[in-house]
């Protein structure tokens, strides 16, 4: 019943948007055409149009069709019934999550959906607790950035599905549980970062991540692919730190930078790791941007705050949240979305001063 209510109200909202761009007395598409366009039943279309006629946005001519009324303000807001979504993320204060939540909220706000946030602090038990609480509260749907865990622990996801609570994943999926997924192309992001560094004259390029899981593996593969494409075989030490569950980034960065054959550039899993490398380099008297190229990932506010502004891969966090919310909206509106549905967004490199090229050491102008 609730899904049926959402369906007709969303159609009503979409029709209003369409009417706004139509001249008064213009004829609306036929009802069979609208059924096909919105992929809903004739009853849903009839109900939405009937209300718009009653509110003065449309008028009907017997045997002729439905037309746009004159003089009615079509931008009047439609109030939707209250509903709630749960958003479960590792930590709202860190990395990409504020932008992601904003993307979700902007979609939810348009449809009068409340957003309730739960922070897992990267703990699996907390994630399970939040899912359980949301199920008991009658939540309308869940958007989840799963904790970094690859053991196949899926009990609470299965319970949510059994309870009729739809789930959309962001950033990464969960082994053994299929659900729509919105993510950034991590392979491509690190690939374009490494390609840029190579094109800037760097050859001894390292890759550094703190955790070893699906995302860091994809980025490492992107880095290695770019290196291989250019006939560069990096020393294993330049990326071997990344095979551990968790590393001491500061220690690993120092070990790399004190080597006689130290890297001339480092690709970092995220901007926070880049900041740590920046501090280590500064302590060792290595200048970022001239002595050492440095590229981060996520394009957070930190990039503009460092003394040498950080080149970084833009994760498109807002768009990930926005796409996830639109998927969840479609599911709650009764549209058939495959559990294998995947939306992949292409990241972009934002170039600043931290990776200017090896030629800058000698004062040569960049091409």
CATH class of the largest domain: Alpha Beta
Class of secondary structure makeup? alpha/beta
CATH superfamily of the largest domain: Response regulator
Largest sheet: 6 strands, parallel
Rounded average pLDDT = 87
Distance between the termini: 63 Å
Global shape: elongated
- The topology string of helices and strands comes to HHHEEEHEHEHEEHEHHEHEHEHEE
Quaternary state of the chains: single chain
Radius of gyration: 25 Å
* CATH fold type of the largest domain: Rossmann fold
Quick structural overview:
It comes from Hungatella effluvii. This protein is α/β, with parallel strands linked by helices and 367 residues long. It has helices spanning 2-20, 31-38, 42-54, 97-110, 124-137, 155-162, 186-199, 214-229, 249-257, 271-283, 302-305, 317-332; strands spanning 58-61, 65-68, 83-89, 113-119, 141-144, 167-170, 181-184, 205-208, 265-268, 293-298, 311-314, 342-345, 348-350.
């Amino acid at each position: 019943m609730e899904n049926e209510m959402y369906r007709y109200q969303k159609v009503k909202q979409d029709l209003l948007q369409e009417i706004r761009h139509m001249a008064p007395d213009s004829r609306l598409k036929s009802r069979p055409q609208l059924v096909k366009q919105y992929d809903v039943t004739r009853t849903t279309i009839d109900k939405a149009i009937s209300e718009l006629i009653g509110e003065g946005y449309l008028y009907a001519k017997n045997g002729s069709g439905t037309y746009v009324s004159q003089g009615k303000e079509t931008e009047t807001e439609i109030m939707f019934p209250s509903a709630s979504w749960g958003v479960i993320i590792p930590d709202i204060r860190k990395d990409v999550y504020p932008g992601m939540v904003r993307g979700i909220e902007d979609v939810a706000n348009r449809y009068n959906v409340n957003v309730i946030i739960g922070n897992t602090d990267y703990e699996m038990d907390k994630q399970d607790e939040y899912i359980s609480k949301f199920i008991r509260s009658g939540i309308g749907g869940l958007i989840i950035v799963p904790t970094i865990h690859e053991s196949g622990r899926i009990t609470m996801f299965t319970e949510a599905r059994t309870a009729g609570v739809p789930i959309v994943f962001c950033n990464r999926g969960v082994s053994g549980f299929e659900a729509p997924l919105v993510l950034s192309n991590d392979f491509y992001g690190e690939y374009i970062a490494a390609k840029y560094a190579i094109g800037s004259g760097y050859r001894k390029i390292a890759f550094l991540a703190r955790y070893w899981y699906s995302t860091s593996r994809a980025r490492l593969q992107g880095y290695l692919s770019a290196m291989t494409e250019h006939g560069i075989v990096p020393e294993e030490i330049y990326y071997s730190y990344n095979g551990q569950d968790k590393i001491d980034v500061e220690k690993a960065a120092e070990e790399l930078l004190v080597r006689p054959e130290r890297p001339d550039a480092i690709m970092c899993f995220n901007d926070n790791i880049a900041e740590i490398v920046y501090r280590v380099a500064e302590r060792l008297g290595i200048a970022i941007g001239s002595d050492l190229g440095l590229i981060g990932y996520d394009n957070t506010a930190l990039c503009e705050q460092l003394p040498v502004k950080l080149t970084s891969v833009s994760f498109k966090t807002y768009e990930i949240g926005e796409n996830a919310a639109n998927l969840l909206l479609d599911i709650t509106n009764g549209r058939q979305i495959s559990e294998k549905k995947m939306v992949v967004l292409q990241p972009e490199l934002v170039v600043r001063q931290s990776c200017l090229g090896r030629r800058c050491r000698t004062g040569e102008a960049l091409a």
